[in-house]
Specification:
The two termini are 30 Å apart. The chain is an alpha+beta fold and 244 residues long. A hairpin with a 5-residue loop joins strand 13 (170-172) and strand 14. The chain is elongated and about 70 Å long. It has 2 domains: 5-107, Alpha-Beta Plaits; 124-230, Alpha-Beta Plaits (2-Layer Sandwich), CATH 3.30.70.120. Helices cover 29% and strands 39% of the residues. The protein has 6 helices and 16 strands.
């Protein structure tokens, strides 16, 4: 977060139609600043100007495809600017980058709408767990219900932390029959994979239910390291109740 005191103001001048890896250059620069934690940035569009090539850029009505000048500007700490400049120089290409000394008298404040989110940053939790993957077919059923849906509901009822269902476009299993999406057919039997990350004790306890529900399929368990970012939702609810 930007604080009061000495800072740097960075101005980057590029053309409106300049590209960076298939994206508009000024948008790519803005994305880079956003995801590198810059406090704020502004993009302004000029109506006339020229650069090192002395080619005049203007908004005259008869020139609808003109490459107008664009300025991306942000203010950050000297340390942060020094960290960002090498990449910005590479991105700007033929553009101009200007850095000025400045002083932040009043740093920006987070709006009341988002302040609660900022005051409670995500906590990082790490540990060991098991990854369970279940491979079945889209047409597989359990008591007249799609098997993948029944498995998700069963896992939720048994307090499994979470599950994601992936739909494949092509595959085959033990019976060597190809499963795929057929464009001209209304009936599909695409491959389905369910992915679950949980502690080993819970997954081992769930296996008897899988034995009953999955008549034909593949279930695999792998060791994984958990790196999880989460908010303390229980603490948030307690604060909300206290305010009420």
């Amino acid at each position: 977060m930007l604080a009061s005191g000495p800072a740097k103001k960075v101005s980057i001048y590029v053309g409106e139609d300049h590209q960076y890896h298939g994206n508009t250059l000024y948008a790519a620069i803005l994305d880079y600043l956003f995801y590198r934690g810059v406090s704020g940035a502004t993009v302004v569009r000029g109506i006339a100007g020229f650069g090192a090539d002395h080619h005049l850029h203007t908004t005259r009505i008869l020139r609808l495809t003109e490459n107008l000048p664009i300025k991306v500007e942000f203010i950050e700490s000297p340390e942060k600017v020094a960290e960002l400049l090498p990449k910005l120089q590479e991105m700007a290409g033929t553009g101009l980058i200007e850095v000025q000394d400045t002083t932040v008298v009043k740093p920006p404040e987070v709006s009341a709408k988002n302040s609660s989110e900022v005051q409670s940053p995500a906590a990082k939790r790490e540990g060991k767990a098991k990854l369970m993957r279940i491979f079945i077919g889209e047409n597989d059923k359990w008591r007249d219900k799609p098997l993948y849906r029944a498995l998700v509901e069963c896992m939720r009822a048994n307090d499994i932390a979470g599950v994601t269902v992936y739909q494949g476009i092509l595959g085959y299993g033990a019976n060597r029959r190809i499963h795929q999406q057929k464009t001209l057919s209304l009936s599909h039997d695409r491959p389905i994979m369910l992915s679950v990350v949980e502690n080993e004790e819970k997954l081992r306890g769930f296996l008897p239910l899988l034995d009953d529900m999955v008549q034909q399929g593949l279930v695999v368990l792998s060791n994984v390291d958990i790196v999880k970012y989460t908010h303390d939702y229980h603490a948030k609810e307690l604060k909300k109740e206290a305010r009420q």
